[in-house]
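Comment thread on ticket #2218

A.B. wrote:
> Attaching the input chain for the structure job we discussed in standup.
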Amino acid sequence: TLGSDKNEYDFIVEDKIDTDVEVGADVIFNGTEFLSPMFCGYELHKNLYVAHVVDELPKPLMETLDAFTPLLSKMQYRGAFSTEEKMVSAKEHYFIDACMRLPNPLSALYPVFISNWAEVVYNTGLGINTTINIKHKYVGAFGLSSIAARDSYVKVNIKKGYEDKVRYQMVTGRGDKNY
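C.D. wrote:
> Ran it. Output below, let me know if you need it in another format.
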C-alpha cells in the first residue's frame, strides 16, 4: 500500500506552447533504421491529414527520430511509428507523443498509393530493408461521417471511375449501393 501518498500525484505543468502548428512523422522502422520515403504530415482536428512524401524529414522531426533509433533498435522493434510535435520555429520544437501504429485515416489508403505495400509489411517483419514505392509527392485523407448515420443508413454516392480511390471503415452494401 502507499499509505498517506495513495491519493497524491505529481504533475509537471508547463507554459503554453504558443503555436497551432502540429506536425509529425509517419514512418516504418525495420529493427535498425527507418525506411524511406517517409511522411511528414500535418493533422487538423484528429481527422484531416496531409503529408509530404520525403526521403529525409525536416531537421526537427529527424532529430526526434534519431533520438528514438537506439531504443527501437535495442527493442528490435519492427513496424509503424508515428510522432506528433508542436513547431514554434525551425529550431524550436516540442515532442508531444509517439505511437506504434499506422496513421488514421491515412493508412487505409496505403495499399492504394504504396505499390509494394504487402512487400513492405512482410519484409519489415523479417527486418529486411525495403524501399517504399510511392509515386506521389503529397498524400492526404479525411474521415467523412454523418450524425444522421447514428439513427439510419446513409447512402454514399461515389462518382463513377473513382470507386477504387475510396476506403471505408464502417460500411454495408446492398446491391451496388454503399451505406
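A.B. wrote:
> Thanks. Noting for the ticket: The chain is about 15% helix and 25% strand.
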